[in-house]
Amino acid sequence: MRSTRWLAALSAAAVASIGLAACGGGGDSAGESTSGGNGDEVMLEFAQWWEPELPDGSFRALMDEFEKENPGIKVKLLSGPYASTKEQLVAASASGTMPDVVGLDGAWVSDFSKQGAIADLTALMKDNGYDDSQLASQIAIDGATYMIPVVNFVYPMFTNTTLLDEAGVSAVPTNRSEFEDAAKKIRATDSDVSGWALPLSLETPNGIQNDVMSWVWASGGTMLTKDGKPDVANEDVKSAAEYIKGLWDAGVVSPGAFTMKEQDKVEDFTNGRVGFMIDSLAHINTIREGNPDLAFEISAIPAKDGYTGERGMPYASWGIGVSASSEHPEEAWKLVEFLMSKETNATLANDAKAFPGNNEAVPAFVNDDELFKKAFEIWDSGTPANEFTGLPVAETLMREFDEPFQKYLNGEMDVDTMLKTAQDSWMEEF
Q1: Contact present, 237 and 299 (Cβ < 8 Å)
Q2: Residue of 24, 129, 246, 426 with fewest CB within 10 Å of its CB?
Q3: Distance in angstroms between the alpha carbons of the first and the last residue of the chain
Q4: Backbone dihedral region for residue 140 (phi beyond 0: left; psi -120 to 50: alpha; all else: beta)
């Protein structure tokens, strides 16, 4: 959901304005306690990229509702595209001038927390008597929460049901053996059709997160130790790597995997060239618009044969945090609590076509569309899983796994050497 459609529309002046506000220069400063001459009024600044990606006026309407429920607190939205927001927050983090409340990507959390730029939310929750059992997930560093996912964009398995039928497979696969069998049968139907799209571009290596480690998480596995250190040579990861290698050797993976990016796999799936892909639920409407006649289904990612535990479901989030330098942490927390409340969170998730961060909230859109309804059932019955969130230099870690993984698939390394190479590289980053 990191849309770039607003980049062209946002003028240089607007970007500069966002930067000045986010860094405390010009206009109202972060945490300013006056507005319209009322010395008792607190002005919270909230920097995020969400407002431009939501229906016009919908996010401001939520802020108006918050202000109505909390007299004396006003919210100034500092809104821009994802990339611009990231740049401004990185600069603000380095200078200690973070806005009071910030939208966060999980990949930023480690650096911001180490710089002391974002507050310990565990302490804020405790100070305010907040029951965190309603939160679907929290992003913690060294035992303290620094980011709460507000809404989540899930990555299930997409299946081209027409290709599945043509291959003589009667049901969407639920385990690894069924998936391998179906992928092979789909590949055998047509030389121009592949079983599974696997994007492994080193330029944008998030395929390691979404398309490789997702097989680990789907069966309750992990790539980390209990204290959050790298553990990519364990049996969970080894099993998934060997399974993918088997699919590779069987010729069911789409051509050009080593340079394929996420948008490439979506294009292949939309055009009916591949039977399966793991992808963001956000692309359902993109696929429908690109090929209205395509028959497809979504499901949980297949698990190890015989696995009966909760399925880990890869996801990306709009996260939220509080500035460690805010002069009004209590008021800032009230805004976080408002956004995570059952009703508000359901409304925001519905507007974003995403899944709520409050595990009691149910967005209306899941009842309006069968695929979204099924996706919500998958999400609700599983557990959010993305162990790259909160790690230092997350994209670098993906790339450092991707490089030896490509050599392993090509037959240039054995699995143990590949995993040790990745493990050693990751340990250097930690």
Answers
A1: no
A2: 129
A3: 29
A4: beta
